[in-house]
Task: structure prediction
Amino acid sequence: MLKALHAFMNRNHVARTRSGLLRNRRRGMSLVEVMVVIAIILTLMSVIGVGVMQVFNNSKVDTTILTMGKVNQRVQIYMLRKKAPPSTSDGLNAVYADEDVPKDSWGNEFKYISPGPGNLDFDIISLGADGNDGGSNNNEDLKWSEVGNR
Result:
């Protein structure tokens, strides 16, 4: 009987020890595991963020080209009425008269040149995101004479 009682107590002690170990293991994640999870999340966010910014910047270029098309239409209508494009010095203000002249997606005014390159009556130019001549990527100049036939 004493042996049975001793075996029962040992078994109970082992069970308590095992359940205590299990309880400690299930308690939560270690600091290293939390840091690894945070690093993975930040990496995913940076990859997604770069992709989203690239799409956003490309949409600004596309929006500027669409706006240039609308400006081109207004200049064409002006030419039908006046039989000639406005001079470079008159610029787009002559076309839009009392209205505000549209700006590109970066808030810069369009440059208007008359006569345009290659026997064109005029050209409309956006200086890109930097607002300066030249550049590459989003800073590249958009010229209606080049992008208008896309």
Notes: The CA atoms of residues 71 and 78 lie 11 Å apart. The first strand starts at residue 111 and ends at 113. The longest helix spans residues 31-82. Strands lie at 111-113, 123-126, 142-143.
